[in-house]
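Severity: low
Component: inverse-folding endpoint
Summary: output formatting inconsistent between runs
Steps to reproduce: submit the following structure tokens with default settings.
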């Protein structure tokens, strides 16, 4: 219930729940959650914000690919100065609005920055206190994606974004929208140098997916793909069991000192975990519970740490309390 989207929760249910939790301590998770719901409902209620939200919704659902009216264009520019670039929906909205005012290069640059960033970093784009722009873009995501796909400008960068989302994201609703958009024209160009230059790591990964297992392992053992790129873009997303050998240890040791959280995710692979534990002389994960609980203090790493703690079975009153503190504050 705590993780259920608040905007679809029945108001009568909230009233009854409020009556049930009145006598609970102020720090109780349910009581904090109710206050958080109330703060969300209070957002975006000023006349100016309501007008701005309606304006953006109208632009998203307009039939035009380019806004030439100077007054409308200036309103879009004003909105762009306010829209954050923290979450994927916000980035899509910004990219779309730049297209609408004719700035194709800026629109593509936003998407290119995203697809050349390692998935682990993009996953940290959270929405604990989602902006109204995030909510607008999330609610209108299908329309935004459709308009981005059909725009007459070159769609190479946008189609690369679709491949990125298909490769590294698993949200069913997002993937349903993405899978409905054709990318076969781009996929036929994955071997071109021009396409490789746009998003090298993503293209390397997509090329690997097309190879038979034997040739894929041979490619990964070769000099073309450095181990840091493999650990960020390849290992967690395909079967690398035939690749596991002591040759991978230097990269695992580098991550031990620089990015323990990602190393914990990499060691979901049993062969990688066995290799690392043998060399370290002890089991890896049990000693990382303290690290994961400390990671709950930062919003950027919160969800990744929470997911792993739940997976390890470390669900107790303290974890619930910490979840409530950072999610509903």
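Observed output (run 2 of 3):
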């Amino acid at each position: 219930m705590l993780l259920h989207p608040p905007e679809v929760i029945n108001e009568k249910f909230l009233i009854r729940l409020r009556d049930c939790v009145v006598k609970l301590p102020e720090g109780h998770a349910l009581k904090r959650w109710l206050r958080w719901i109330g703060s969300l409902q209070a957002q975006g209620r000023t006349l100016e914000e309501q007008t701005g939200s309606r304006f953006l919704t109208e632009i998203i659902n307009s039939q035009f690919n380019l806004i030439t009216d100077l007054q409308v264009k200036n309103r879009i520019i004003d909105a762009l100065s306010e829209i954050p670039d923290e979450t994927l929906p916000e980035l899509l909205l910004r990219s779309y609005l730049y297209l609408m005012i004719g700035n194709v290069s800026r629109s593509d640059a936003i998407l290119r920055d995203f697809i050349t960033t390692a998935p682990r970093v993009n996953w940290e784009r959270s929405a604990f206190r989602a902006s109204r722009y995030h909510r607008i873009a999330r609610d209108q995501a299908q329309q935004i994606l459709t308009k981005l796909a059909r725009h007459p400008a070159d769609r190479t960068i946008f189609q690369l974004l679709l491949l990125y989302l298909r490769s590294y994201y698993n949200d069913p609703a997002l993937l349903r929208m993405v899978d409905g958009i054709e990318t076969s024209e781009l996929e036929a160009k994955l071997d071109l140098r021009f396409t490789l230059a746009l998003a090298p790591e993503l293209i390397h990964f997509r090329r690997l997916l097309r190879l038979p297992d034997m040739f894929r392992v041979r490619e990964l053992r070769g000099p073309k793909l450095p181990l840091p790129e493999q650990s960020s873009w390849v290992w967690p997303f395909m079967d690398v069991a035939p690749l596991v050998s002591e040759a991978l240890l230097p990269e695992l040791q580098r991550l031990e000192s620089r990015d323990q959280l990602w190393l914990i995710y990499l060691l979901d692979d049993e062969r990688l975990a066995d290799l690392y534990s043998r060399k370290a002389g002890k089991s890896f994960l049990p000693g990382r519970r303290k690290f994961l609980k400390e990671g709950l203090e930062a919003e950027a790493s919160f969800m990744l740490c929470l997911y792993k703690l739940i997976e390890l079975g470390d669900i107790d009153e303290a974890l619930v309390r910490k979840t409530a503190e950072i999610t509903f504050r």
